[in-house]
Amino acid sequence: MAFEIVLVTDDMKLRKLKSDVDFTGKRVLIRIDGNVPIQKGKVVDGPHGRIARSAVDIDWLSQRGAKVIVLSHLGRPNGKRVASFSLKPVAKRLGGLLKSRVTLSKEIIGPKVVKLIEQMKNGDVLLLENLRFDAREESNAPSFAQALASLGDLYVNDAFAVSHRAHASVDAITSDLPSFAGPLLANEITVLSKLDKGLKHPFVLVMGGLKIETKLPVIERFLTSAEKILIGGALATTFLVAQGFAVGKSVYDVDGIKEAKSLLAKAKDKLVLPIDVIVASSVRKDAQTRCVSVDAVKPNERIVDLGKKTLARFEDELECAKTVVWNGPLGMTEIPKFCHGTIRVAKAIADRTGSATTIVGGGDTVPVLEAVHLADKFTLLSTGGGALLEYLGGKKLPGLEVLDSE
Questions:
Q1: What is the rounded distance in angstroms from the CA atom of residue 35 to the CA atom of residue 53?
Q2: Count of beta carbons in the 10 Å neighbourhood of residue 217
Q3: Does residue 406 sit in helix, strand or coil?
Q4: Which domain range does residue 99 map to?
Q5: Within this chain, do residues 180 and 320 fall inside the same structural domain, yes or no?
Q6: Are residues 160 and 227 in the same domain?
Q7: What is the pTM of this model?
Q8: Rounded CA separation 176/52 (Å)
Q9: What is the three-class DSSP state of 89?
Q10: What is the pLDDT of residues 181-239, one digit of tens each?
Q11: Would you say residue 398 lies in a domain?
Q12: Residue 404 falls within a domain, yes or no?
């Protein structure tokens, strides 16, 4: 099978299928990340969501005559069949995107699945039921991987978001089939690899969210190469507590205060923390808010967004950046009223696209970006959550390691 090489780091290259390969009649197993929220039986997945973007590559294979067998998981059913974690809504969403019927196999492996595949015509798409209904998926069991592999002629990993997991459909399966990186995965890695090779300065890192333990490896990795590190969201509140400020009823990472103090000592000149914040006495949609200095938060108030002076400082730091990496919301984005800071920073980063490489972590920020039509305004809107943080933190991802062409 012909393939191209995608550079990941100096010592690692991914195998990628060539576009001129004849897929006619080939049974292609493609791993996607369909793990999206389900509300009232429907997936919550916008035009730039994980399923929507996976559909592009599924369609690419289908149009080339492949029999496309889609693999995914949903939630944490812990190896048991749980009706609420069925991929039925995902099949419906895929069908709508592809404008053709996507059959959902109630089984994951076995004779019934084999029969369904035998009945497939070239270009048909079959989605297997939630991989995590079988406990062997998360244990990376060779027996489960071999059973999956027997259903296809080749395997494509197009799910960067799960590539940090050593699971059977990501890792072990590659031992039993010719395996390649899908277009979505390959594109993400091509852009992300620029942070290792050919990094352009000034480089600004923007970090939000909550848990400092997941952000710390990223901040420490880029402590030397980044000119500035802008901190927002509940992550910033943790740093404010570490500096001795009272934050009222604000959410912050209690277990991360020690790490925050250590980081402040090491990188005080590079870290840009809020100097003012938006506070509210409740998190209701009609809550009254005020902008205050970080030393003026009352005991009954909680920090919900970045203040005006802080946003102006963030925008100044981003204005001349040649590389920007942003991960994590900068306010309580679950409530539209508290999205202002996140949106302003998003616009500032989007304005740099073209002049700079702009990389934005997906997850919680995607719906906000879609709502203000910014989701397609970056060099890369990553599908990865934990996988992106681990990659940025310098960890080796099992799903990438097994696609190494060397």
A1: 13
A2: 15
A3: coil
A4: 3-186
A5: no
A6: no
A7: 0.92
A8: 29
A9: helix
A10: 999 999 999 999 989 888 999 999 999 988 889 899 999 999 999 999 999 999 999 99
A11: no
A12: no
